[in-house]
Amino acid sequence: MLNQKNNDNFLGGPQNFEESDIVIFGAPFDSTTSYRPGTRFGPKSMRSEFFGIETYSPYQDLDLADFTIYDAGDLDLCFGDCSYSLKQIEDMASEILAEGKLPFLLGGEHLVTLGNVRASAARYPDLHILHLDAHADLRDDYLGMQLSHACVIRRCHEILGDGRIFQFGIRSGDKSEFEFAKRHTYMNKFNLEGLENTLEGLRGKPVYLTIDLDILDPSVFPGTGTPEPGGLSFHMLLEGIMKITESMNIVACDLNELSPTYDSSGISTMTACKLLREILLSLSAKQL
Amino acid sequence: MLNQKNNDNFLGGPQNFEESDIVIFGAPFDSTTSYRPGTRFGPKSMRSEFFGIETYSPYQDLDLADFTIYDAGDLDLCFGDCSYSLKQIEDMASEILAEGKLPFLLGGEHLVTLGNVRASAARYPDLHILHLDAHADLRDDYLGMQLSHACVIRRCHEILGDGRIFQFGIRSGDKSEFEFAKRHTYMNKFNLEGLENTLEGLRGKPVYLTIDLDILDPSVFPGTGTPEPGGLSFHMLLEGIMKITESMNIVACDLNELSPTYDSSGISTMTACKLLREILLSLSAKQL
Amino acid sequence: MLNQKNNDNFLGGPQNFEESDIVIFGAPFDSTTSYRPGTRFGPKSMRSEFFGIETYSPYQDLDLADFTIYDAGDLDLCFGDCSYSLKQIEDMASEILAEGKLPFLLGGEHLVTLGNVRASAARYPDLHILHLDAHADLRDDYLGMQLSHACVIRRCHEILGDGRIFQFGIRSGDKSEFEFAKRHTYMNKFNLEGLENTLEGLRGKPVYLTIDLDILDPSVFPGTGTPEPGGLSFHMLLEGIMKITESMNIVACDLNELSPTYDSSGISTMTACKLLREILLSLSAKQL
Amino acid sequence: MLNQKNNDNFLGGPQNFEESDIVIFGAPFDSTTSYRPGTRFGPKSMRSEFFGIETYSPYQDLDLADFTIYDAGDLDLCFGDCSYSLKQIEDMASEILAEGKLPFLLGGEHLVTLGNVRASAARYPDLHILHLDAHADLRDDYLGMQLSHACVIRRCHEILGDGRIFQFGIRSGDKSEFEFAKRHTYMNKFNLEGLENTLEGLRGKPVYLTIDLDILDPSVFPGTGTPEPGGLSFHMLLEGIMKITESMNIVACDLNELSPTYDSSGISTMTACKLLREILLSLSAKQL
Amino acid sequence: MLNQKNNDNFLGGPQNFEESDIVIFGAPFDSTTSYRPGTRFGPKSMRSEFFGIETYSPYQDLDLADFTIYDAGDLDLCFGDCSYSLKQIEDMASEILAEGKLPFLLGGEHLVTLGNVRASAARYPDLHILHLDAHADLRDDYLGMQLSHACVIRRCHEILGDGRIFQFGIRSGDKSEFEFAKRHTYMNKFNLEGLENTLEGLRGKPVYLTIDLDILDPSVFPGTGTPEPGGLSFHMLLEGIMKITESMNIVACDLNELSPTYDSSGISTMTACKLLREILLSLSAKQL
Amino acid sequence: MLNQKNNDNFLGGPQNFEESDIVIFGAPFDSTTSYRPGTRFGPKSMRSEFFGIETYSPYQDLDLADFTIYDAGDLDLCFGDCSYSLKQIEDMASEILAEGKLPFLLGGEHLVTLGNVRASAARYPDLHILHLDAHADLRDDYLGMQLSHACVIRRCHEILGDGRIFQFGIRSGDKSEFEFAKRHTYMNKFNLEGLENTLEGLRGKPVYLTIDLDILDPSVFPGTGTPEPGGLSFHMLLEGIMKITESMNIVACDLNELSPTYDSSGISTMTACKLLREILLSLSAKQL
Predict the structure, then answer these.
(1) Distance CA B193, CA B239 (A)
(2) With contacts defined as CB-CB under 8 Å, which chain C residues touch B218?
(3) CB contact residues (below 8 A), chain B span 144-163, against chain E
(4) How far is the C-alpha of C206 from the C-alpha of C102, rounded, in Å?
C-alpha cells in the first residue's frame, strides 16, 4: 500500500541522490513577467505530463531508464520578493555544485537564471554562457527595476564581463540592447547560424546553457509569456542543442518560460518535456 | 536536498499509513463513458490543485493539519478492460478494509464505485448505499454492456437487493430506470428533500456514500462528462453531505465524475477539492 | 448499409412530416449581432449534442420517443442580407402554418423571430406575444438600422400594436426602451413575477412564444452573444415555460441566442437542448 | 479625423476632470498573487468590454450619460516591486483626495487596496473599512512576506486599529485569521447577514469600501485568481452593495481580483462592469 | 419541406451506394487511449466542419462534385468492449469489400485500424500496409492489454507476417518497438525519406494505407491524443500521400486520431478534412 | 492627472495628424463572413496587445518611436448593412487620400478592402492590386450576394479591369474562380514564387497592397475565420512583404481577417501586430 505513484518526479520511480550526476529543481517564479504571467506553472506542468512521452529517444537511441537523475522538486519561492527568491535559487544551485553535480533548473521566468549563474560563476570563475532566446534580455533596467526577466543577461554580463556570453536566435529587444550586444556579447540574430564556430571556440571551457523556450516559433510553442513570431522549428532547436550538449562541458543549465495556461492544447508542455528528455540523455550519456 | 515537495499527495507532508483511519486512492478510469470522456484526469487534477485551498474549514472549525490521512495514490488501471480494472479497485479496497480503515475512492467515471462496493459489501453484509447523483444509473445494460457507468447502481442492486439503496437528486435517466426505482430503490428526484427521514432510518447501519459530482448544477460544476442542467447549488450539496457524514456510519465512500478538461476556468476542480476537504474533516472528527 | 446515423435530426430516426404537429427549423443567422457574433452555430450545435440528453423527461414523465416531430433542418441564409433572410424565414413559417402545424424556430440571433412572427400574425390576426428575455429589444433603430436584434420586438409591435406584447425578465436596455414599454407593452423587469396574471388574461388567445436564452443567468448560460448578469436559474425558467405551454394556445414559437463558441464547457448547449425537450414534450402532450 | 474612438475610457466620450466627483484609476498589479496570476489584466479587460453593457440601469433608473466621471487610466506599475507600486497607488489616491474627489481604484490583486487605504486614512483619520470578500486576508505574513494579497486587511488593521474593519462573506482563511478576526475586526462569515446592523452603526463615518469580486460564487465569477466555491449570487451582492452606497459616506473604494484569462466566456468581465456601473450611478446620484 | 440539409454526410447531397467506389464510415472509438481520450469525436467533427472547405482542389484540379462517394455514417460502438467493437468494424469493412468497394475508415483511435485490416487481409491475402505515424504502435501489450492503440501494428504483423509492413515518420516508441521493427517491418524514422523506393517495390500489390494524423507536427495538428513534437508539415504529408495514392493499388484505408476537443482553434479538424478531400479525389480520379 | 495611458492607439503617445504620412483606421466588420465570424474584433485586439511587442525592429534596424503615424481609431460600422459600411470606409479613405496620406486599413473581414480600393482607384486611376491570400475571392456572388468577402477581388476587378490584379498564395476557391483568374488576373497558386517578376513589372505604378492574413499557415495564424492548411511561414510572408514595400509605390493598403476569438493563445494577434510594425516601418522609412 505504498504511495509511489503520486511521487510525481520526472522518472517516476524511487530516487537516489548520491548516484545522480544531474539534479533537477524547479523555480516556479514569474513576479517580474511584464506581459503575460504564468510561467510559475511551468515545472509543475512538466512533471504532470512527463509520463505522456516515452523514456526512450529514437534520436539518440538512449533510454532514461538506464540513467540515475535526481529530481529535487520545486523551491518554495515567495511571489513578490525577487532578491530573496534569487538567493534561494542560488543556494540550491551552490549546494548541488558543491556535491560535484550539475544543477538543472526549470523556470519559471528567465530571471531565475541569475541565481543559477551566480552559483555557477562562483564555482567556475571562467564560466561562459550559451544563451538561446527570442529576446536579448540585455536591458539595464525595466520600468526602473534591475532584477527583471528583461535584464537577466545584462546582470549575468556584470558578473562575467565581455566576451563570455554568446546569444543565438535573438529577434526582439529595444535598440539599446542590440547596441549593447555589439560591444559586449556575441549575438547571432534570428537563428542558430554560427553556432558551430562558437562551439569551436568554447571547447573545454565551463559552459552554462540557458534556453528560453520562446526561441521556438509560437506555432510550435504558443504557451509562453511573450510569444515572438518568426522563431525556430522544433528540429532546428533540437539539432542545435544536441550540438551543444555533445561538444561542450556543460556545468549547469536551465530551461525556462513555459507558461502552460496559454496553450490549451498542451503541445507546449510536451515540447518542453521532449527537449528535457533529450538534454538529460545527452548529458548523462557523456558522463558514462 | 530531499524532494518532499513533489510528493504530490493531498496533505503535502510525510504520510503514516498505520495512524490513518482513512485511506484515499484514485481510480483514473473512464473507458465506458458514453458522452464525453476525461474523468481519468479527475484524481490527478485534484491532487495538483489541492494546495489552492486552505486546510482549515470555517464551516466546521477543523483543520486537516490536525488529522492523519493516508493518500495511497492512483491505481494503474488498464484502459479498455473494465472487469480487470474493477478487480484492481476491489482488491485495493479490500486491503484497506481489512486493516480496519475507510477506503475513500476518487473516480474516474461512476463505474469505479462497483469495485469499492463489492469490497465493502463483502465486509459489511448489511451495507446500505446513499447515492447522490443527477443520473439514475439503473440501466440493465448500455449498448449491450453491463459494466457501464450507466448501469453501476443496477449492478450494486444485484449485490444488495431491494430496500438498501437510497438515491437523491436524480433528474435524468430513461423511463425504465425510473420504473425500476419505483420497485427496487428509494429515489428522491431533483433534490435532497427527504434526506433527513432517510438518515433517520439508516442510523447505525453500515453505509456506503457515493457522490457523483454532476448532482451539482452545471453552472457550479461544468467540468463533468454529462452535465445535466437544473442541479444543486454548492451550499445545498455541502449541507446535505454534512448531515450524512455527521449522523451516518460511513464505512466506505467515493467522489467521482470530475472531468477537468471541460472546465478551463478550473472551478470544478476547486469544488471537488473543497467537498473532499469537508468530508475528510467531518469523517476524521468523528473518529477522534 | 444505410446511413441513418448521420441523419442528424433531433429525433435520430426516420421522420414523418404528415403526422407531425410540430415542425422544427433552424435559422443560422447573426449578421446584426452587435457585441459578439456566433449564434449562427446555435442550431447546429443543438442537433449535434442532442443525443447527449435522454429522450425521457422525469419532470413531465413523457418521452419524445412517443411523439412524432419533424425536423426540417436549417435554412440556407445569406449572411449580410437581413431582409432576404427574414423573407426566407417567413416563407418557411407560412408554409408550415398553412399545413396546420406549429413552426418551432431555432435561432440564430433574436432578429429571426420577426420572420416567424410575420407569418404567424398573417395567419392569426389576434396574435399575442410572450417574450422572455434579458433585453427589451425595443429600439427604433440600432446604429441607423431598423432590422436589428436590438429592435426586433419594436418591429413586432409595429405589426401587432399596443397591448399585445408581454415581456418578462427584462434587465437591460436603454432608457428609451423602458419608456416605450411603459406606453406600449406589458413589461415585468428582472424576473417572471406576474406571469400567472398575464397567462390568465391570455387564455384562449393565439400566442407566439419567443425565448431569448440570455434571460438565464450567465452562470447557467454563458454561451450567448450578450451575457447579462443577474438572470434566472434553470429551474425558474423551466417552471415559467411549463406554466406557459400548459395553459396557452401556442401557435408558433422560437428559442434563440445560443452562441456555443463562447462556452467551451458545452453546458449552454445542453441547457438549450433540455429546454427544447421539455417544450416539445409539453406542446406535444397537449395535442394528444 | 479625430481619434475619439480609441480613447478607451469607461465613458467613451471626452472627459472633464474638474467637474467629476469620482476619479477612476487602474492598478494592473498581481505580483504577490500566490495561486493563479492575471489580475493585472482586470482594468484593461473592463475598459475593453464596458461598451458591451448599457449605460442605463433599470435597477436604479439612472444613466451614466447624465453624470461626469473621470477615468484617469492605468498606473504604470513595476512588476516585482510591491513597495514602490503601493507608493504609486497611494500618491495617485492622495492627489485625487486632495482635489476633494473620490478615488475609485480598479485592481489588480487585493494588495493594491493598501495604497488607496493609506491615502484615505491620511485624509480621514476616522476611516472605517467595509470589506466584502471570500478570503479573510488577515495573515501577518505569507511565505515570509508582509506585503501580500493574503495580508492586506491585516496591514489595514495596523493603520486603523480595532473596531474599524467590518468583513462580510468570508469563507476561507487559515485558522489564525479567523481567530484574529474574533479579537480585532467584525467578521460575518459566508454571506451578508448582519450588514444592515453594521451600516446602522457606521452612519456618518467616512467609509472605505473594498470589494474582492471573489465574494461571488465561482459559477457567477469564474475569472479570478482564487475561486472559492459557495459564494454569493449576483443579486445578493448587488443588493448588499446598493444598501452600502445608498446609506454610507463612501470616501474611497475599490473593485478588484478580476482575472479575465481564466474565463474564456467573458461573463466575469461583464459582471465586474455591471457592478461598476451600478456603484458609479449610486455614488453619483447621491452627489447631485 | 424536405430536410436534406441536416443530412450531415460529407458530400451534403443525396447519396447513391451502388454507384460509389468508395464507402466512408466512422468508428468513434477511443477506449484504449492511454494519454488523452477524445478521438471518438473525430468523425463527427469532420462531418460537421467539412462544409468549411471547398469541394474543389487546386492541387489536383478535381472537384468532389464530379464523383460519387457514399458516406455510411458512424458505427454504434460500445465504449469499453474492444473485441466487440473491432468485430463491428471488421463486419462493416467486409460488407463493403464484398461489394467491390473501398472501405475508407475514419477513427477514432488507431486501434480501429485492426478491424479494417482484418477484413482487407481476408479478401486480399497478399495485403501490404503503408503506415504513416509518429508512433511505432508495435508493442506486444500495453499495461497487459493486447488490443490497444499502442499495439495495433503489432497485431497487424501477426496477420501479415514479416516484410509486409512499411512504416514512415515514426519518432516515438519504447526501445523494444524499434528493435522489433529492425527484424520484422521496414521503418523509416522521423520523415518520409525512402518512400519512393518503397512505392517502387509495392507496385501492383494490394495496399492498405493507414494514416495516424499525429505524424503531422503538433503545431499543424494539435488536436490529437498524443502530440509528438518534431513532425511533418502539411505540405510534406500531402505530397507523400499523393505519391502513394497515385501509384499504389489502395484497397482500403483509414485516417485516424483526430481529437477535436484539444484544439479550440479548429485547425486540426480543417487539416483532417482537407487531407480527406485530397485522398478521396485522388482515389476517385484513378477509378475513372 | 491626464489619462494618456488609456489612449489606446498603436503608438501610445500623443498624435499629430498633420505630420503623419500614414493614417491607420479600423473597420470592425464581419457581416458577410460565411464560416466563422469574429474578425470585427481584429483591430481592437491589435490595439490592445500592440504594447506586447517592441517598437524597434531588428529586421530593419528601425524604431517606430522615430516616426509619426496617426491612428484614427475604428469606424462605427453598422452590422448587417454592407453597402453603407463600405461607403463609410470609402469616405474615410478618400478623406485621408485627399490629404496626401496613405490610408492603412485594418479589417475586419476581407470585404472591407472594397471601400479602400474604391477610394484609391478614384484618386489613382492606374491603380494595381497586390493580393496576398489563401482564397481567390473571385466569385461573382456568394449565396446570391455580391457584396461578400468571397467576392471582394471580383468586385475590385470590375473597377480596375484585366491585368491589374496580381494574386499570390492562393490555395482555395471553387473551380470557377481559378478559371476566372486564368482569364482576368495574374494568379500564383500556393506561395510567393514569381513575386519578384511581378514587382519588376509594377515598378512605378500606384499599388494597393491587400493582405489576408490567412495566407499564413494555420499553425502560425489559427485565429482567423477560414483557416486553410498548407500556408506560408511567418518568415516567407515577412520576406515577401518587405520586397513589396521596399520596391513598390504603395498608395493604400490593408491587413485583414484576424479573428482573435479562435486563438486563445494570442499568437495570431501578436503575428498581426509584428507584421503591422514591419510594414509601417518600411513604408515610413521610404518617405524619409
Answers:
(1) 12
(2) 220, 265, 267, 270-271
(3) 144-145, 147-148
(4) 12
pLDDT at site B286: 86
Tally of structural domains, chain E: 1
Residue A61 counted as an annotated binding residue:
no
3-state secondary structure of C230: coil
Using CA coordinates, name the residue in chain C closest to F150.
C79
The answer to the question of whether E149 is labelled as a binding residue is no
In CATH, what number is assigned to the domain containing residue B259? 3.40.800.10
Q: Is residue D51 part of a domain?
A: yes
Q: Which of residues 54-93 of E touch A (CB under 8 A)?
A: none
ipTM over 0.90? The verdict is yes
Contact criterion met (CB < 8 Å) for A172 and F265: no
B81 is in an annotated binding site: no
Contact of A4 with chain E, judged by CB distance below 8 Å, is answered with: no
pLDDT digits (tens, 9 = 90+) for A151-174: 999 999 999 999 999 999 999 999
Residue E135 counted as an annotated binding residue: yes
In a domain, C11, yes or no: no
Q: Which three cell numbers stand for residue B245?
A: 457524514
Query: How are beta strands B22-27 and B102-107 bridged, if at all?
Result: parallel
> Mind listing the pLDDT tens digit for each residue in A194-244?
999 999 999 999 999 999 999 999 999 999 999 999 999 999 999 999 999
Cell of E245: 495514392
Query: Residue D217 annotated as binding?
Result: no
Q: How far is CA E118 from the centre of its chain?
A: 14
Give B-chain residues touching D223 at CB under 8 angstroms: 265
F5 touches chain A (CB under 8 A): no
Q: Which residue of C has its CA nearest to E96?
A: C1
Does the residue D205 lie in any domain? yes
The 3-state secondary structure of chain E reads CCCCCCECCCCCCCCCCCCCCEEEEEECCCCCCCCCCCHHHHHHHHHHHHHHCCCEECCCCEEHHHCCCEEEEECCCCCCEHHHHHHHHHHHHHHHHHCCCEEEEEECCHHHHHHHHHHHHHHCCCCEEEEECCECCCCCCECCECCCHHHHHHHHHHHHCCCCEEEEEECECCHHHHHHHHHHCEEEECCCCCHHHHHHHHCCCEEEEEEEHHHECCCCCCCCCCCCCCCECHHHHHHHHHHHHHHCEEEEEEEECCCHHHCCCCHHHHHHHHHHHHHHHHHHHHCC
Q: What range does the domain containing C234 cover?
A: 22-286
Q: Which residue of D has its CA nearest to F74?
A: D5
| Residue B4 confidence (pLDDT) above 50 | no
Question: For residue D204, how many other CB atoms are within 10 A of its CB?
Answer: 10
One-letter identity of residue E43: P
**Touching chains, F (3+ CB pairs < 8 A):** A, C, D, E
Tell whether B52 is covered by a domain: yes
